[in-house]
Specification:
The complex is a heterodimer of chains A (296) and B (313).
Chain A (H helix, E strand, L loop, with lengths): L2 H4 L6 H36 L5 H5 L12 H32 L5 H13 L4 H13 L9 H25 L3 H9 L4 H28 L4 H5 L20 H10 L9 H29 L4
Chain B lengths: L1 H6 L15 H38 L2 H6 L3 E2 L6 E2 L2 H32 L2 H16 L2 H20 L9 H25 L3 H9 L4 H12 L1 H17 L2 H6 L17 H8 L9 H35 L1
Antiparallel strand pairs in B: 1-2
Helix pairs in contact in B: 2-13, 4-7, 4-10, 5-7, 6-7, 7-10, 8-9, 10-13, 12-13
The chains are: A mainly alpha (296), B mainly alpha (313).
C-alpha cells in the first residue's frame, strides 16, 4: 500500500456546497430577525420623527390629533418608574442576599422560594394585572386606579428579574472575600454590607435597569389595573390617576383615523420616544457592565 | 482535635469564645426573610385571586359549558360562556408564531453556538437583545400599520382582514425568536467539545456535527427553549389585541380576526368593571385558564432544562 492511499481525500464538491448552503441558511435566520428589527425602526422613525417636537412633549392629549401631545403620559411613566424602582431595589436586593448568603438549600422552604421565583418570571404579564386589580386596586389594599397601584403591579412583575440578576452578581463575589472579612472579626451582616454588596453593585444596578426597561414598555397589566386613556393632568401624588406612554400609544392606535384626525403619526412619535428611553437605559446597563465588571 | 490535647493536662490553648448573640444580626436576617416572602406571597396572591373569583364564576356557569362550549358572548344577552373560540384563537396564533420562530430561532442558535466567531457573536447578541426588549405594544403597532397593509395585502396580495391572526402570529414569532435562540444556544454551548472533536475525527463535516451530534445532544434544552417560547406566545396580550381584532371566532382561517385568552382579558378589564359582576368574574376565569396553561408549560420547560444540566455538568 502506498502512502498516498492512506491520506484523507479532500471533501467532495457536493459536500462543500451543502456545508456552504447550510451556513448561509443559518446566517439568513439571523439576518431576517435583524432585518425585521431594522424595518420596524425605520417605519417608526419615518412616521413619528416629524411629530416628536416640543409641542408633543409639552401638550396634553386632545380630541384633535394635531393639538395632541404626550405630557401626561410621559410624567405618568416617570412616576410609575419611580414607584417601581423604590419598590424593587430594596425588596429584590434583600431577597437576593437572603437566597445567596443565608438560605440553606437543603431546606424545603428555601427551595420553594427558588422554584417560585423561576415560575413567577414566566407568568404572563396580564395575569399580574389581574393580581393588581384583585388585591391592590380593589380588595384588601383598595388603592383605587392610582399611580401607586400601577407602579406596584409593575414592581411585582419585574421583581424576579432583579432577584435573578442580583443573585448572579452576589454569587460572582469569590468566597475568599467573605472568609477574609469574617476572619478579621466582621459579623455576617458587616461582611455583606461592607464587602459583598459594594463588589456586586454594578451587577445589581444592571439588573435593576433591565427590570425597569421591561416595566416601562408593559401595557397589558396597566390596562387591567385601570390606567386612564384620556387624561389632561400630570400625576401630583401617589393617589393620583394616571396614564403612561404605552397606554397612550394603545389609545392612539385604537382610535380610528379619518380625514380630520390622523392618530398614527402620534402613536409612532410616542413609540419613538419610548424606544429612545429604552435604548438609553440599555446603553447605561451595557456601559455599567463593561465599566465596572470586576475580574477576580 | 485540639480539645483532646488540652484535656490531657497541657497548658490550655486560648480559644475564641462562643460569639455573643447579636440581636441586630438576627433582626436583619428576619427582614431579609420577609423580603423573600414577598415573592411567595405574590404567587399565593395570584392563585387566591384567581381561585376565589373562578369558583364564584362556576357557581353561575357550568364547568363543562365553559370548557367545551363553542360560543363566547359573555357580555351579550343572553350570555354564552363557551371558551373554545378563545382557546382556538390563542393556539392558532401561537402555532403561526412557532412556525416562524422555531426554524429562525434554532437556526440563529446553531449559528451563534457552532459557527460564529467570538467577535461576530459579540456584535449579534446585542441586536437580539434589542429585539427582545421591544415592547409588545410596538410589535402590535407594527403588525397592524405596516405588516398587514404593506406586506400581506400589498406585497403578497393576500385577502386578509385588516385585523387578522396571520400578522399577529408572524410578528409574535419574531417577538419569541430571542427567547428560543438564547435558551437553545445555552443548551448547545453546554454540549462538551469532546463530542464534536470525536465526530470531526471520524471525518464528519461541520453540517454533520451541528445537525447529527450537537443538535440531538442538546435536544432537551432545545425542547425547553421551544416550550418557553410557546408559553410566552400564549400569554402575549398586546400584539393580539391590537393586530388581531376582538372577535371570538372558531374559524381556523388565519386571515380572519381572532380573540385570544389574554387579549380578551386585556380588552374587557378596564379599571371600572364592577366587582362581583359576571363580567368581573369572567376575567378571572379566563385568567385562571391562561395561568394554568402557562404554568404547565413552564414546569415542563424547567424539567427539560434540568435534564440537560444533569447530563453535562
Amino acid at each position: 500500500m502506498s502512502a498516498a492511499d492512506r491520506t484523507i481525500p479532500p471533501p467532495s464538491p457536493t459536500r462543500r456546497a451543502k456545508d456552504l448552503a447550510f451556513r448561509l441558511a443559518l446566517l439568513g435566520c439571523l439576518g431576517i430577525s435583524v432585518l425585521l428589527l431594522g424595518v420596524l425602526l425605520y417605519d417608526v422613525i419615518k412616521d413619528g420623527a416629524g411629530h416628536l417636537d416640543m409641542h408633543f412633549l409639552t401638550s396634553f392629549t386632545s380630541i384633535s390629533a394635531d393639538k395632541a401631545g404626550a405630557q401626561a403620559a410621559i410624567w405618568g411613566t416617570i412616576w410609575l418608574m419611580g414607584i417601581c424602582g423604590v419598590f424593587i431595589v430594596p425588596v429584590g436586593v434583600a431577597t437576593a442576599i437572603y437566597l445567596e448568603e443565608y438560605a440553606d438549600d437543603a431546606r424545603w422552604y428555601n427551595r420553594l422560594i427558588e422554584v417560585n421565583i423561576q415560575n413567577l418570571a414566566a407568568v404572563p404579564s396580564v395575569v399580574y394585572g389581574i393580581l393588581g386589580l384583585a388585591f391592590l386596586v380593589r380588595g384588601p389594599l383598595a388603592l383605587g386606579n392610582t399611580v401607586l397601584a400601577g407602579g406596584l403591579t409593575l414592581g411585582l412583575l419585574v421583581l424576579p428579574v432583579v432577584i435573578i440578576s442580583g443573585r448572579e452578581a452576589i454569587r460572582a463575589v469569590p468566597p475568599s472575600i467573605r472568609e477574609g472579612s469574617r476572619a478579621l472579626g466582621a459579623t455576617q451582616w458587616q461582611t455583606i454590607w461592607r464587602q459583598v454588596l459594594p463588589a456586586s453593585i454594578p451587577g445589581i444596578a444592571t439588573g435593576v435597569i433591565l427590570a425597569l426597561s421591561r416595566a416601562i414598555g408593559e401595557t397589558a397589566p396597566l390596562i387591567v389595573v385601570g390606567a386612564a386613556t384620556v387624561i389632561a393632568f400630570n400625576p401630583d401624588g401617589l393617589d393620583s390617576q394616571f396614564t403612561a406612554l404605552p397606554i397612550q400609544i394603545f389609545d392612539w392606535i385604537s382610535r380610528a383615523s379619518n380625514d380630520v384626525n390622523n392618530y398614527k403619526p402620534l402613536a409612532a412619535a410616542a413609540i419613538l420616544l419610548l424606544m429612545i428611553m429604552l435604548l438609553a437605559m440599555n446603553s447605561v446597563a451595557i456601559w455599567l457592565r463593561n465599566r465596572y465588571e470586576q475580574k477576580w | 482535635m485540639e480539645a483532646s490535647t488540652t484535656a490531657a493536662g497541657t497548658r490550655a490553648v486560648p480559644t475564641l469564645g462562643a460569639a455573643r448573640r447579636r440581636w441586630g444580626e438576627d433582626l436583619i436576617k428576619a427582614i431579609l426573610i420577609l423580603a423573600a416572602m414577598i415573592s411567595v406571597l405574590t404567587t399565593t396572591g395570584i392563585v387566591v385571586a384567581l381561585l376565589r373569583e373562578t369558583i364564584d364564576f362556576f357557581g353561575e356557569v357550568g364547568v363543562w359549558d365553559f370548557l367545551s362550549g363553542g360560543k363566547w358572548t359573555p357580555l351579550f344577552e343572553p350570555p354564552s360562556f363557551g371558551v373554545r373560540p378563545l382557546v382556538v384563537g390563542t393556539f392558532l396564533i401561537t402555532g403561526i408564531a412557532l412556525l416562524v420562530a422555531a426554524p429562525l430561532g434554532l437556526g440563529a442558535a446553531i449559528f451563534l453556538s457552532e459557527y460564529a466567531r467570538t467577535r461576530v457573536r459579540k456584535a449579534i447578541k446585542p441586536a437580539l437583545e434589542l429585539l427582545a426588549g421591544v415592547p409588545t405594544i410596538v410589535f402590535g403597532y407594527f403588525a397592524l400599520t405596516f405588516f398587514t397593509p404593506n406586506i400581506l395585502q400589498d406585497l403578497l396580495h393576500l385577502k386578509v382582514n385588516i385585523f387578522n391572526a396571520l400578522a399577529a402570529g408572524v410578528i409574535m414569532g419574531f417577538m419569541i425568536i430571542p427567547t428560543i435562540a438564547s435558551v437553545a444556544e445555552d443548551a448547545m454551548s453546554a454540549v462538551p467539545a469532546s463530542l464534536r472533536e470525536g465526530a470531526y475525527g471520524l471525518g464528519a463535516s461541520k453540517l454533520h456535527v451541528s445537525m447529527r451530534v450537537v443538535f440531538p445532544a442538546a435536544l432537551s434544552g432545545i425542547v425547553a427553549a421551544i416550550v418557553l417560547g410557546v408559553s410566552r406566545a400564549v400569554g402575549e396580550t398586546m400584539i393580539v389585541l391590537v393586530a388581531s381584532g376582538q372577535v371570538a371566532s372558531n374559524s381556523l382561517n388565519p386571515a380572519d380576526p381572532h380573540y385570544s385568552l389574554a387579549s380578551f382579558i386585556g380588552s374587557t378589564a378596564g379599571g371600572d368593571t364592577p366587582t362581583g359582576s359576571i363580567e368581573y368574574k369572567t376575567i378571572f376565569a379566563v385568567g385562571m385558564l391562561l395561568f394554568v396553561i402557562t404554568l404547565i408549560m413552564n414546569l415542563i420547560s424547567i424539567r427539560f432544562v434540568r435534564k440537560y444540566r444533569q447530563v453535562y455538568e
